[in-house]
Write a structure and sequence with these properties.
The complex is a heterodimer.
Chain A (H helix, E strand, L loop, with lengths): L1 E4 L4 E4 L4 E2 H7 L7 E5 L2 E2 L5 E2 L4 E6 L7
Parallel strand pairs in A: 1-7
Antiparallel strand pairs in A: 1-2, 3-6, 4-5, 4-7
Chain B lengths: L11 E3 L4 E3 L1 H18 L9 E5 L3 H12 L4 E7 L3 H18 L3 E5 H5 L3 H8 L3 H20 L3 E3 L4 H13 L12 E2 L8 E3 L7 H10 L16 H15 L3 H17 L8 E2 L6 E2 L5 H13 L12
Parallel strand pairs in B: 3-4, 3-6, 4-5, 6-8
Antiparallel strand pairs in B: 1-2, 7-8, 9-10
Helix pairs in contact in B: 1-8, 2-8, 5-11, 7-9, 7-10
Classes of the chains: A mainly beta, B alpha/beta.
Chain lengths: 66, 312
Amino acid sequence: MKVILRNPRREIEVAGKRRVKELLREMDVLPGTVLVIRGDELITGDTVVGDDDVVEVRPVMSGGVA
Amino acid sequence: MKCRKCGGSAALELRRHNAAFCSPHFIEFFRKQAAEAIHKHRMFTRDEPVLVAVSGGKDSLGLWDLLIEDGYRTAGLYLDLGIFEYSQESRAKCEAFAAARGQTLHVEQVAEAIGAPIPEVQKATRRPTCSACGLSKRYLMNRAALEHGYAVVATGHNLDDEAATLFSSVLHWQTDALPRQSPALASTHPKLVRRVKPLYRLSELETAAYAFLRGIDYIVEECPFSKGATSLAHKEVLNRLEEVSPGAKHNFLFGFLEKARPAFERVEHVLLQECASCGQVTTGELCAFCKLADQVKRRLRPPATVPGAAAP
């Protein structure tokens, strides 16, 4: 599958089916810190994603708070 | 994963609530949380125009969206910080948002007020960028609200922002800052507008999900100066805690607001007066913004030429 990452925007290829929470764990990303987007939908940690999917892992943290 | 309310396919899991929601029920949940914040702290009424400070990000545009949808009278305020392409893109997002919804957007140029854009301010003063930026934003938000006739400014600060600020204040025992941390700061002077944070009950994950599910085109890229910011390091620490103990951030912030904050409130009142230079409210003779602007002007002023000196 194609995984889109942000800040800066880049893409990586990941082979094989797995649950979203496993994908995030492999990438060392905390589930509460990102939206996981497939198409125009948000998907939860138990959703299985596979080779044909394009998944965006979008960070939610913003900083430099005033 | 199933939606707690309808049993349909969930879009988002909220571990701190031990719940998951589908898209429509998450939006309903989100609006209820904001409505509770507005009601509980008497932030504003439907008859009162609200100036929403917008940055182009998920929180502030999400806040503006929900206030419009809920029937409040609003206008936006965008502060152009002059941070290269980042400011251009974020301003474009705010302008497009306002135009699509038929809302007024006021724009203030920080460089006009302070004498230089934020990146130059940092170079001139060696003050941390986020510190100069935050000071300028608070000052200009108040000034713009007064000039345009708004009694209240709403900002998009979320639960994570508030928990990180509290963490920083506690870490350094900034006892002056603790009583000022509140979802709603009342006006304590005719020239100080009310400042409110209707999203303080909602996490950063939730504000991002709301913006996405509402189809809001917000700026995902971060401010180039936020890299390495202490506030982000504090958020990361709190996110690690939250991962092993869902609800930790909520309990930290709400416990403070309900149990600890009153203990830090000053008994004596601070004497407020008007700045000798700009007339805005301050505790000294000159306000912090005028001092900063003066520092910038002195450092960026070209060196005076010596009378009679030969040209090179």
